[in-house]
Amino acid sequence: MLFVLAFLMLVKGARRLIATVTAFTVAHSLTLAGARLGCAHVSGLPVEAIIALSIVLVAAEIIHGPQGKTGLTERFPWVIAFTFCLLHGFCFASARSEVGLRNQRFP
Fold first, then answer.
1. pLDDT at residue 4 above 60?
2. How many CA atoms lie within 13 A of 33 on its CB side?
3. What confidence tens digit (pLDDT) does each residue in 6-46 have?
4. Ordered DSSP codes for 14-73
5. Domain boundaries, the chain
6. For residue 104, what is the DSSP state?
7. Considering the entire predicted model, what is its pTM?
8. In whole angstroms, what is the distance from residue 41 CA to residue 22 CA?
C-alpha cells in the first residue's frame, strides 16, 4: 500500500495517474496469472527485498522532489509501476501459497 500511496504523491495529472494505475494492475495480474498457472515461480525472500527497495526508491523521490530533482518515477511513472509490480505480484502469489491457499480453490 505504501508503494501505491507514494505514486499518488508523485504522479501529477489524471491521465498519467490512470496510466500508472493501469500499468500496476496489468503487471500484478500477469504475475498472479503466471504463478497460478505454474508458468513462473520466484523465491519469496529476494522478491520481498526488492519490494522494500522499490518503496525506498519511491520515498527518496518524494523527499528529493521539492528540491527540484525529478526522478525516474516522476518522469516515467507507468514504467516504474509496471516493472516493480511484476515483482509485487510474485510476492503476493508466494504469500498466498505460503498460507495454504491451494490453486484449485481459487480461479
1. yes
2. 6
3. 777 888 888 988 998 899 889 988 887 877 777 766 666 77
4. HHHHHHHHHHHHHHHHHHHHHHHTTS----HHHHHHHHHHHHHHHHHHHHHGGGT---HH
5. 2-6+24-100
6. G
7. 0.70
8. 23
